[in-house]
Structures are given as C-alpha cells and as structure tokens.
Amino acid sequence: MGNDDGFALSSNTLEPRTEVKQRLFSKSHQDLAKETCPAKDESSSDDDAHVPVTEIHLKSHEWFGDFITKHEIPRKVFHSSIGFITLYLYTQGINYKDVLWPLIYGFIIMFILDLIRLNWPFFNILYCRTVGALMRKKEIHTYNGVLWYILGLIFSFKFFSKDIALISLFLLSWSDTAAATIGRKYGHLTPKLARNKSFAGSIAAFTVGVITCWVFYGYFVPTYDYLNKPGDIEWTPETSKLSLSTLSFLGGVVAALSEGIDLFNWDDNFTIPVLSSLFMNAVIKIFKK
C-alpha cells in the first residue's frame, strides 16, 4: 500500500503508523529500563512491570572499582574541587557577592530538575545515567545533596563577610571531605559521636580546618589584600586579640563542630556552611579589639 494511505505493514498485518511508532518507543523505553534497573524475578506479577524508582541501578557504580565506589571518589573529587576553584576566583578579584545570584539561579534549576525526575521515572533513569557517578544511591529517590550544598552557600554568602563566607565554603569542601574519608576508613576504631559521625572523622575535620585557616589568613589574605574592600575581611592581626595560630586552632574546632553536629537530621551540605559561618563569625567578633 502506498505511503499516502498512512499505514505501514507489520507482521502481515496492516497497522496505523502511529501504533508502530508507539510500539517502537515502548520497546526502547523497556530496553533502557533493563539496562539501568536490576532484573525482576520471573515470578513477579504484571503489577510489578514498572520497576520502582528506588531500584534504579547506577551503572557508574559498576564501571568504577569497589574501592572507588565505596569511598565515593568521583563525588569527593568534585566536592573538593569547588574549594580550589573558589580560591582561584578569590585571587582573581571576583566579588563574592556577584556569585549570590548565580547560586540562587542554580538552586532553582536544580530544584526544578529534581521535581521532574522524582515524578517522572523515565527522566530519573536518564538523569541518574548522566550524573550517577556524583550521586549517592539514596539520592536516586530523594532530593539531590547539591541542593543543600547551594542553599548553605547562599546563606553564608548573603549574611556574612567575604572571609567568613569563603572559610565556610572551604570547610565544607575540604574538612567535610577529609572527615568523610578518614571516618569511613578508621571510624570503627574510634568512638561514635553522632549519627554517622566518628571521632576519627572529627579529628580529620579539625586538622584540615586548622590548615585551611592558617593558609587562608596567613598567606592569601595578606598577599591579595589589594583585592579586598573595607569590611570584606573580619579578622586581621591589627583588629583582633587572636593571633593567627589561635585563630587557626579555633578554626579547626569550628570545622570539627560544624561537621560533627547532627542538626535535626538535616543534610550536612547545608548545616556545615551555616554552622561554620555562625561559629567563625562569633569567634572573630568576640575577640575584636
């Protein structure tokens, strides 16, 4: 039969082209689901034909070895890189307040994407296949940790001075990563302080916090002082009773506390920048000359 009749030949039966296309789309959808989801038991009923979103399989977690997957290395590399990128932008004189609106826009976009994927399983499958290497399995069926990350930074960048906001980001980027890495490796050897928080992880957060404050306030702030406007930097040797060593030590304490406190079971990507901003600001303000 000619093309003008709007029909196609399939299995010796004449069917409308639209039905053929629907079957092809359905088949491709099923093939994609098979690739990304675990196999179903043959005894499953027809009601189980659609695999729950919670069973979406992250192929990226298979591509990497067990060690890389267990320790979330791609996620941690990305997490830590944000601190280095931010430090570089600081040395280039980027106004930290100019980053606020991009953060807000980023939050809105990510929130909309999460709403879509959590209500549209097929899109969630595609999403997880694309960025699954940066996701935890629990984030397949709940809001992405990036949302909390951005929300915490929005709080810090909105309400605090440049140095406090940057320190909160550095502690989130580096101290949290160190705490998670060391805590996962050696946490079972030390006392547990809170839900999924160990003394080993807190020591790691403290150590990285001390180093971060020492390097930032001891090198980067004075070296790039010409980039700072009046009021951008809360701590200086001239305006504080705290020496650099004492400030760095207290910065380590702030890092450990911010990472170790389990606040209402909220995501620590949000609580760490919020708490570290509040604590660090309080420490510096209390010891002002």
Number of helices: 11
Q: Taking Cα atoms only, what radius of gyration do you get, to the nearest Å?
A: 25 Å
Indicate the percent of residues in helices.
55-70%
Give, in order, the helices and strands: EEHHHHHHHHEEHHH
Quaternary structure classification: single chain
> In what order do the strands lie side by side in the largest sheet?
1-2
User: What best-fitting shape do the alpha-carbon axes yield?
Assistant: globular
What's the story with the biggest beta sheet?
2 strands, antiparallel
Question: Distance between termini?
Answer: 92 Å
Using brief descriptors, characterize the structure shown.
mainly alpha; two-stranded antiparallel ribbon; two-stranded antiparallel sheet; 11 helices; 4 strands; ATP-dependent diacylglycerol kinase activity; Dgk1-like; DGK1-like protein
Task: Please specify the SSE layout and strand pairing.
Elements: E1 7-10, E2 13-16, H1 17-36, H2 60-63, H3 66-70, H4 73-91, H5 100-119, H6 121-131, H7 145-159, H8 162-186, E3 192-194, E4 197-198, H9 199-223, H10 244-260, H11 268-286
Antiparallel strand pairs: 1-2, 3-4
Helix pairs in contact: 4-8, 5-6, 5-7, 7-8, 7-11, 8-9, 8-11, 9-10, 10-11
What's the gist of this structure?
With 289 residues, the protein is mainly α. It has eleven helices and four strands; from the N terminus they run E-E-H-H-H-H-H-H-H-H-E-E-H-H-H.
